[in-house]
Amino acid sequence: MYSKLIALALFIGLVSCVDTKRNVKDQSENCSNVNSYIPIDSANKMISSYLNSIQYQNNDTDVRSFIVDANALRCYLNSDEGLNVSNLKFSLAHNASTAYSTDSNINCGYNGKHLTIVISGFDTLGNYVIHPKGLCIDRAFWRPKRPISGNASNDLIVE
After folding, report:
1. Contacts of 137 (CB under 8 A, 6+ apart)
2. Is the pLDDT of residue 129 over 70?
3. 3-state secondary structure of 18
4. Residues 7-38: pLDDT tens digits?
5. How many CB atoms are located within 10 Å of the residue 116 CB?
6. Tens of pLDDT along 87-102?
7. Which residues contact residue 92 at a Cβ distance below 8 angstroms, ignoring those fewer than 6 apart?
8. What is the pTM of this model?
9. Is the dihedral of CA 34, 70, 88, 19 positive or negative?
10. By the 8 A CB rule, do 120 and 89 touch?
11. From the DSSP assignment, how many helices (H) and strands (E) are in the chain?
């Protein structure tokens, strides 16, 4: 009986020491020391500089931005593998329909009809962190599938 109580106490002690939360950093730790943010006016200056360089007022084919599914990114980063991601790599690429066509390997300039970005993560050692299913994130759209009705339809960032 005594040994059963000790075994039960040990079991309860071990179970209570197990952290039932995922191995995710505290949200305040993740965000309080980030030096990657810039003010909106600086972001808009940078965006405007690019847009003016492609003469966007008279040009509706060059890429102005890419839209990425935040849920896909969130799922990847919150996966067991994704917890090891320290940086994301955004690679410009021909979209699948271009890459698997006769237009493959042909310079399309900034034409959004042919471009996408492929997103992959890597760890602090510089090694790729592969998605649990051996996938990379694509589906970045240069134009939304549905019109954006809010202020994100603006080329510049507005509050």
Report:
1. 68, 69, 72, 73, 76, 118, 119, 120, 131
2. yes
3. coil
4. 434 444 433 333 433 434 444 455 666 778 88
5. 23
6. 999 999 999 999 999 9
7. 115, 116, 117
8. 0.71
9. positive
10. yes
11. 5, 3
